[in-house]
Amino acid sequence: MTLHENEIPVDEPLVRSLLRAQRPEWAGLPLSPAGSGTDNTMYRLGDDLLVRLPRAAGKGQSVRKEQKWLPRLAPFLACAIPEPLHAGTPTGAFPVVWSVQRWIDGAEAGPETVRDWAAFGADLAAAVRELHRTDLMGATRAGDLSWYRGGSLIPCGQWVGRAFDDCRTTVGAELDIDTLEELWRTALALPEPAGPQVWLHGDLKPTNLLVREGRLHALIDFGGLSVGLPDAEHATVWDLPPRARRAYRDALNLDEPTWARARAWAIAVGVSGISYYWHTFPAFVAECRARLQAILTDAAR
Protein backbone atom coordinates (compact mmCIF):
# COMPACT_ATOMS: atom_id res chain seq x y z
CA MET A 1 0.00 0.00 0.00
CA THR A 2 1.66 3.23 -1.19
CA LEU A 3 0.60 6.41 0.60
CA HIS A 4 3.11 9.06 -0.44
CA GLU A 5 5.03 10.21 -3.49
CA ASN A 6 8.59 8.84 -3.62
CA GLU A 7 7.72 6.11 -1.10
CA ILE A 8 10.54 3.62 -0.54
CA PRO A 9 9.51 -0.02 -1.18
CA VAL A 10 10.11 -2.26 1.84
CA ASP A 11 9.84 -6.03 2.11
CA GLU A 12 11.33 -8.82 4.21
CA PRO A 13 14.41 -9.40 1.98
CA LEU A 14 15.28 -5.70 2.27
CA VAL A 15 14.97 -5.74 6.04
CA ARG A 16 17.15 -8.84 6.29
CA SER A 17 19.77 -7.22 4.06
CA LEU A 18 19.89 -4.19 6.35
CA LEU A 19 20.28 -6.43 9.38
CA ARG A 20 22.99 -8.56 7.77
CA ALA A 21 24.99 -5.44 6.96
CA GLN A 22 24.56 -3.60 10.27
CA ARG A 23 23.45 -6.08 12.97
CA PRO A 24 24.37 -9.56 11.72
CA GLU A 25 23.65 -11.11 15.13
CA TRP A 26 19.95 -10.34 14.54
CA ALA A 27 19.77 -11.23 10.84
CA GLY A 28 18.66 -14.83 11.40
CA LEU A 29 15.85 -14.10 13.85
CA PRO A 30 12.24 -14.67 12.78
CA LEU A 31 10.82 -11.66 10.96
CA SER A 32 7.15 -10.83 10.40
CA PRO A 33 5.11 -7.75 9.46
CA ALA A 34 3.97 -5.77 12.51
CA GLY A 35 1.75 -3.21 10.86
CA SER A 36 2.26 0.11 9.17
CA GLY A 37 1.11 3.64 9.72
CA THR A 38 1.15 6.81 7.69
CA ASP A 39 4.88 7.35 8.27
CA ASN A 40 6.52 3.99 9.00
CA THR A 41 6.48 0.29 8.21
CA MET A 42 7.21 -2.11 11.08
CA TYR A 43 8.49 -5.66 11.36
CA ARG A 44 8.69 -7.75 14.49
CA LEU A 45 12.13 -9.27 14.86
CA GLY A 46 12.39 -12.33 17.08
CA ASP A 47 10.49 -12.08 20.36
CA ASP A 48 11.98 -8.87 21.68
CA LEU A 49 12.67 -6.46 18.82
CA LEU A 50 10.83 -4.17 16.39
CA VAL A 51 12.28 -2.80 13.14
CA ARG A 52 10.92 0.62 12.22
CA LEU A 53 11.45 1.92 8.67
CA PRO A 54 10.28 5.32 7.38
CA ARG A 55 8.06 5.22 4.31
CA ALA A 56 9.84 8.15 2.62
CA ALA A 57 13.05 10.14 2.93
CA GLY A 58 11.30 13.06 4.59
CA LYS A 59 10.15 10.80 7.45
CA GLY A 60 13.68 10.02 8.62
CA GLN A 61 13.84 12.99 10.96
CA SER A 62 11.18 11.35 13.14
CA VAL A 63 13.40 8.30 13.64
CA ARG A 64 16.32 10.54 14.64
CA LYS A 65 14.14 12.32 17.19
CA GLU A 66 13.09 9.06 18.77
CA GLN A 67 16.66 7.80 18.94
CA LYS A 68 17.88 11.01 20.58
CA TRP A 69 15.11 11.87 23.00
CA LEU A 70 13.26 8.70 24.05
CA PRO A 71 16.13 7.43 26.23
CA ARG A 72 16.15 10.82 27.98
CA LEU A 73 12.39 10.93 28.50
CA ALA A 74 11.91 7.33 29.67
CA PRO A 75 13.15 7.80 33.27
CA PHE A 76 10.51 10.46 33.89
CA LEU A 77 7.49 8.50 32.64
CA ALA A 78 5.57 5.75 34.42
CA CYS A 79 4.18 4.39 31.13
CA ALA A 80 6.50 2.31 29.01
CA ILE A 81 7.78 4.01 25.85
CA PRO A 82 9.88 2.63 22.97
CA GLU A 83 13.54 1.93 23.70
CA PRO A 84 15.80 2.46 20.67
CA LEU A 85 18.49 -0.23 20.45
CA HIS A 86 20.03 0.41 17.03
CA ALA A 87 20.28 3.54 14.89
CA GLY A 88 20.23 2.15 11.36
CA THR A 89 22.23 4.06 8.78
CA PRO A 90 21.18 4.64 5.13
CA THR A 91 22.27 2.24 2.41
CA GLY A 92 21.98 2.16 -1.37
CA ALA A 93 18.87 -0.02 -1.09
CA PHE A 94 17.31 2.00 1.73
CA PRO A 95 18.61 5.59 1.68
CA VAL A 96 17.05 6.70 4.99
CA VAL A 97 17.87 6.24 8.65
CA TRP A 98 15.90 3.47 10.34
CA SER A 99 15.64 1.99 13.81
CA VAL A 100 15.42 -1.16 15.88
CA GLN A 101 13.52 -0.81 19.16
CA ARG A 102 12.71 -3.15 21.99
CA TRP A 103 9.33 -4.84 21.46
CA ILE A 104 6.63 -3.81 23.94
CA ASP A 105 3.96 -6.41 24.63
CA GLY A 106 0.43 -5.07 24.64
CA ALA A 107 -2.71 -4.65 22.57
CA GLU A 108 -4.14 -1.52 21.00
CA ALA A 109 -6.73 0.30 23.08
CA GLY A 110 -10.22 -0.78 22.08
CA PRO A 111 -13.46 -2.33 23.31
CA GLU A 112 -11.89 -5.79 23.45
CA THR A 113 -8.89 -4.70 25.53
CA VAL A 114 -9.97 -1.87 27.86
CA ARG A 115 -11.88 -2.88 30.98
CA ASP A 116 -13.04 0.51 32.24
CA TRP A 117 -13.05 3.48 29.86
CA ALA A 118 -13.34 6.07 32.63
CA ALA A 119 -10.27 4.63 34.34
CA PHE A 120 -8.48 4.50 30.99
CA GLY A 121 -9.21 8.18 30.35
CA ALA A 122 -7.85 9.08 33.78
CA ASP A 123 -4.74 6.95 33.19
CA LEU A 124 -4.12 8.64 29.84
CA ALA A 125 -4.50 12.05 31.47
CA ALA A 126 -1.92 11.06 34.10
CA ALA A 127 0.51 9.97 31.38
CA VAL A 128 -0.01 13.24 29.48
CA ARG A 129 0.47 15.25 32.68
CA GLU A 130 3.76 13.47 33.33
CA LEU A 131 5.04 14.10 29.83
CA HIS A 132 4.02 17.75 29.86
CA ARG A 133 5.71 18.31 33.21
CA THR A 134 8.99 16.69 32.16
CA ASP A 135 11.86 19.15 31.96
CA LEU A 136 12.72 20.19 28.40
CA MET A 137 16.39 19.41 29.02
CA GLY A 138 17.44 22.24 26.75
CA ALA A 139 15.09 21.28 23.92
CA THR A 140 13.31 24.12 22.11
CA ARG A 141 10.59 24.45 19.52
CA ALA A 142 13.00 24.42 16.60
CA GLY A 143 14.12 22.07 13.84
CA ASP A 144 12.83 18.52 14.26
CA LEU A 145 11.03 19.47 17.48
CA SER A 146 8.87 22.11 15.80
CA TRP A 147 5.62 20.60 14.50
CA TYR A 148 2.45 22.36 13.45
CA ARG A 149 0.33 20.67 16.11
CA GLY A 150 2.20 22.44 18.89
CA GLY A 151 1.62 25.90 17.51
CA SER A 152 -1.27 28.18 16.62
CA LEU A 153 -4.38 27.12 14.72
CA ILE A 154 -4.33 30.26 12.58
CA PRO A 155 -1.51 29.32 10.14
CA CYS A 156 -3.39 26.08 9.35
CA GLY A 157 -6.45 27.90 8.02
CA GLN A 158 -5.63 27.67 4.33
CA TRP A 159 -4.96 23.93 4.09
CA VAL A 160 -7.76 23.09 6.51
CA GLY A 161 -10.12 25.13 4.34
CA ARG A 162 -9.14 23.09 1.30
CA ALA A 163 -9.70 19.89 3.28
CA PHE A 164 -13.21 21.03 4.23
CA ASP A 165 -13.95 21.55 0.53
CA ASP A 166 -12.66 18.07 -0.30
CA CYS A 167 -14.76 16.53 2.48
CA ARG A 168 -17.91 18.17 1.17
CA THR A 169 -17.29 16.31 -2.07
CA THR A 170 -16.40 12.94 -0.55
CA VAL A 171 -18.34 12.54 2.72
CA GLY A 172 -20.54 15.61 2.83
CA ALA A 173 -23.69 13.53 2.58
CA GLU A 174 -22.70 11.54 5.68
CA LEU A 175 -21.09 14.19 7.91
CA ASP A 176 -22.27 17.69 8.79
CA ILE A 177 -19.25 19.50 7.37
CA ASP A 178 -20.84 22.93 7.90
CA THR A 179 -21.10 22.37 11.66
CA LEU A 180 -17.54 21.07 11.81
CA GLU A 181 -16.32 24.17 9.99
CA GLU A 182 -18.30 26.39 12.34
CA LEU A 183 -16.65 24.73 15.35
CA TRP A 184 -13.26 25.19 13.67
CA ARG A 185 -13.88 28.89 13.03
CA THR A 186 -15.15 29.44 16.57
CA ALA A 187 -11.85 28.13 17.90
CA LEU A 188 -9.88 30.35 15.50
CA ALA A 189 -11.58 33.39 17.05
CA LEU A 190 -10.47 32.48 20.58
CA PRO A 191 -7.45 34.14 22.20
CA GLU A 192 -4.17 32.36 21.54
CA PRO A 193 -3.29 29.81 24.26
CA ALA A 194 -1.07 31.05 27.06
CA GLY A 195 1.35 29.11 29.21
CA PRO A 196 4.69 27.38 28.85
CA GLN A 197 5.71 25.12 26.00
CA VAL A 198 5.97 21.44 26.91
CA TRP A 199 6.95 18.07 25.52
CA LEU A 200 4.23 16.76 23.19
CA HIS A 201 3.74 13.20 21.98
CA GLY A 202 1.68 14.58 19.12
CA ASP A 203 -0.50 11.59 18.17
CA LEU A 204 -2.01 9.79 21.15
CA LYS A 205 -4.66 7.94 19.15
CA PRO A 206 -5.76 4.44 20.24
CA THR A 207 -3.35 2.65 17.89
CA ASN A 208 -0.49 4.34 19.77
CA LEU A 209 -1.81 3.36 23.22
CA LEU A 210 -0.96 -0.16 24.35
CA VAL A 211 -3.05 -1.95 26.96
CA ARG A 212 -2.18 -4.75 29.37
CA GLU A 213 -4.72 -6.39 31.66
CA GLY A 214 -7.28 -3.78 30.71
CA ARG A 215 -5.19 -0.73 31.67
CA LEU A 216 -2.95 1.70 29.82
CA HIS A 217 0.58 0.28 29.68
CA ALA A 218 2.61 2.06 26.99
CA LEU A 219 2.74 5.06 24.69
CA ILE A 220 4.28 4.23 21.32
CA ASP A 221 5.15 5.98 18.03
CA PHE A 222 6.82 9.22 19.08
CA GLY A 223 7.37 10.29 15.48
CA GLY A 224 5.38 13.45 16.22
CA LEU A 225 7.46 14.30 19.29
CA SER A 226 7.79 18.05 19.57
CA VAL A 227 7.95 21.02 21.91
CA GLY A 228 4.96 23.34 21.90
CA LEU A 229 1.64 24.36 23.39
CA PRO A 230 -0.44 21.48 24.76
CA ASP A 231 -3.86 22.10 23.17
CA ALA A 232 -3.36 19.78 20.19
CA GLU A 233 -2.23 16.95 22.47
CA HIS A 234 -5.81 16.57 23.71
CA ALA A 235 -7.31 16.24 20.22
CA THR A 236 -7.16 12.45 19.99
CA VAL A 237 -9.52 11.91 22.94
CA TRP A 238 -12.37 12.15 20.41
CA ASP A 239 -11.11 8.77 19.18
CA LEU A 240 -12.09 7.32 22.58
CA PRO A 241 -15.56 6.58 23.98
CA PRO A 242 -17.35 9.45 25.78
CA ARG A 243 -16.65 8.05 29.26
CA ALA A 244 -12.92 8.09 28.60
CA ARG A 245 -13.11 11.57 27.09
CA ARG A 246 -14.99 12.99 30.10
CA ALA A 247 -12.62 11.37 32.59
CA TYR A 248 -9.61 12.69 30.69
CA ARG A 249 -10.92 16.25 30.63
CA ASP A 250 -11.92 16.15 34.30
CA ALA A 251 -8.55 14.75 35.38
CA LEU A 252 -6.67 17.52 33.59
CA ASN A 253 -9.24 20.19 34.51
CA LEU A 254 -9.26 21.55 30.96
CA ASP A 255 -11.16 24.82 30.60
CA GLU A 256 -13.61 25.57 27.79
CA PRO A 257 -11.21 27.54 25.52
CA THR A 258 -8.58 24.79 25.77
CA TRP A 259 -11.22 22.16 25.01
CA ALA A 260 -12.51 24.14 22.02
CA ARG A 261 -9.00 24.51 20.59
CA ALA A 262 -8.31 20.81 21.17
CA ARG A 263 -11.55 19.98 19.34
CA ALA A 264 -10.49 22.25 16.48
CA TRP A 265 -7.19 20.36 16.19
CA ALA A 266 -9.16 17.11 16.10
CA ILE A 267 -11.31 18.52 13.29
CA ALA A 268 -8.26 19.74 11.36
CA VAL A 269 -6.51 16.38 11.51
CA GLY A 270 -9.76 14.55 10.70
CA VAL A 271 -10.73 16.50 7.60
CA SER A 272 -7.17 16.65 6.29
CA GLY A 273 -6.77 12.91 6.82
CA ILE A 274 -9.90 12.22 4.77
CA SER A 275 -8.71 14.60 2.06
CA TYR A 276 -5.16 13.27 1.79
CA TYR A 277 -5.77 9.54 2.23
CA TRP A 278 -9.18 9.17 0.54
CA HIS A 279 -7.85 7.01 -2.31
CA THR A 280 -4.95 5.29 -0.54
CA PHE A 281 -5.67 4.43 3.11
CA PRO A 282 -9.36 3.59 3.72
CA ALA A 283 -8.75 2.35 7.27
CA PHE A 284 -7.28 5.70 8.27
CA VAL A 285 -10.11 7.54 6.51
CA ALA A 286 -12.55 5.48 8.59
CA GLU A 287 -10.72 6.55 11.78
CA CYS A 288 -10.98 10.19 10.74
CA ARG A 289 -14.68 9.87 9.95
CA ALA A 290 -15.37 8.24 13.31
CA ARG A 291 -13.50 11.04 15.08
CA LEU A 292 -15.48 13.73 13.28
CA GLN A 293 -18.78 11.97 14.00
CA ALA A 294 -17.88 11.81 17.69
CA ILE A 295 -17.26 15.57 17.65
CA LEU A 296 -20.65 16.18 16.01
CA THR A 297 -22.39 13.93 18.51
CA ASP A 298 -20.82 15.80 21.42
CA ALA A 299 -21.70 19.16 19.89
CA ALA A 300 -25.35 18.13 19.49
CA ARG A 301 -25.76 17.40 23.19
UniProtKB/TrEMBL annotation:
Signal peptide: none annotated. Pfam families: APH (PF01636). Residues 32-265 form the Aminoglycoside phosphotransferase domain. Transmembrane segments: none annotated. This is Aminoglycoside phosphotransferase family protein.
